[in-house]
Design a protein that fits this description.
This protein has 259 residues and is α/β, with parallel strands linked by helices. 42% of the residues lie in helices and 20% in strands. α8 packs across α9. It is globular. The site of S-adenosylmethionine (SAM) has 23 residues, from α3, α6 and β2.
Length: 259
C-alpha cells in the first residue's frame, strides 16, 4: 500500500469513529438521538417507552428477514447461569431475568431450575415471543417458566412475586442514569429479603454516552443510585473469571437490602 493509500485509510477510520461506519456516525446515530429527544422532550414519553419501541422495531425487522440467531450468542449465556450458581443459586431458587431479550439465559436456566422458578421479563414483546419460539425448538415447554412484558421502568406487571436472584445482564448499559435509578427503585420490592440483585454496568472514569442507547457510568454514579434506591452495592470482582474478554468495560455489581 502506498503512503497516499494508507493516509486515506487512516482518514476513513478517523471519519468512521467509534461507530465504525460513516453512515452510522453521521446519519443513523444523530437521527436516533433526535428521535429520542422528540419522544422524551416533546411527546412526553419516558426513555424506557422510547427504547421499547426501538427494540420492537429492530425485532420486527430481524423477524421479517428471518435473521438466524447465532449459536455462539446462545451458548455465551451459559456464563450467566454458571455465575448465579457460583453466587449460591440452587434448583429451588426463584429467579427473575430482568431484560431477558430472546431468553438465551432461559435456554440454560430452565433445565437447571425446578419448574416455574424462572420468570423472564422484558419491555419488548417481539423479542420475548422470539425467545419462547427458540426454547420450544429446543424442547423447553413454556409451561415450565413465565414471561412478563413490562411497559415502563415501574415493572408493575411483575405483581406480588419476590425473587432470590434478579439478573440484569447488559440492560442498565442501555439506559441513562436516571432511568437506571427508577428501575432499581422498582426492583427493590421484587427482591426477597436475603436476595441478590446482580446487575452489569459498563464502567468508565467519566460518564460517557456514544449514542442514544449506550451508557458508561462511573463507580461513584453507581454508588449514588444504589443509595437513592436504599440498596447496599458492591462490585463483584469474581465476574472477571466468568465474563467474555470482549466485554472489556463490563463490570458486575451486587445490590442487596441494607438489613
Ligand atoms: C442487550 S439485551 C440483553 C438481553 C439479556 N439480558 C441477555 O444477556 O441475553 C437488553 C435487553 O434489555 C431489555 N430492556 C431494556 N430496558 C429494559 C427495562 N427497563 N426493563 C426490562 N427490559 C429492558 C431490552 O428490550 C433488551 O431485550
Amino acid at each position: 500500500m502506498s503512503n497516499k493509500d494508507s493516509l486515506f485509510q487512516r482518514f476513513l477510520t478517523w471519519l468512521r469513529g467509534d461507530s465504525k461506519s460513516i453512515k452510522s456516525r453521521f446519519f443513523h446515530r444523530p437521527l436516533e438521538r433526535l428521535d429520542l429527544f422528540v419522544s422524551t422532550n416533546i411527546k412526553g414519553e419516558t426513555y424506557t417507552e422510547w427504547y421499547r419501541r426501538r427494540m420492537n422495531r429492530m425485532a420486527s425487522i430481524s423477524n421479517k428477514v428471518n435473521k438466524p440467531v447465532s449459536q455462539r450468542y446462545l451458548d455465551n449465556a451459559k456464563i450467566q447461569v454458571e455465575y448465579m450458581k457460583h453466587k449460591g443459586m440452587m434448583p429451588a431458587s426463584k429467579v427473575l431475568e430482568y431484560g431477558c431479550g430472546i431468553l438465551r439465559v432461559g435456554l440454560h436456566l430452565v433445565p437447571y431450575l425446578e419448574d416455574n422458578k424462572y420468570v423472564a421479563a422484558d419491555i419488548s414483546d417481539l423479542r420475548v415471543e422470539k425467545g419462547v419460539r427458540i426454547l420450544k425448538e429446543q424442547g423447553i415447554d413454556p409451561s415450565r417458566y413465565s414471561t412478563v412484558i413490562l411497559t415502563d421502568a415501574t415493572a408493575k406487571e411483575l405483581g406480588d412475586d419476590q425473587f432470590d436472584f434478579i439478573m440484569a445482564h447488559d440492560v442498565f448499559a442501555h439506559m441513562p442514569l436516571d432511568e437506571c435509578e427508577s428501575c432499581l427503585v422498582s426492583l427493590k420490592k421484587y427482591l426477597a429479603k436475603d436476595g441478590q440483585l446482580l446487575v452489569t454496568f459498563d464502567v468508565s472514569d467519566k460518564p460517557t454516552s456514544t449514542n442514544a442507547k449506550d451508557y458508561w457510568f462511573t463507580q461513584d454514579q453507581i454508588a449514588r443510585i444504589a443509595a437513592a434506591a436504599n440498596f447496599l452495592v458492591e462490585e463483584q470482582l469474581d465476574w472477571m473469571d466468568f465474563k467474555l474478554p470482549t466485554q472489556e468495560t463490563q463490570r458486575m455489581f451486587r445490590f442487596v437490602h441494607p438489613d
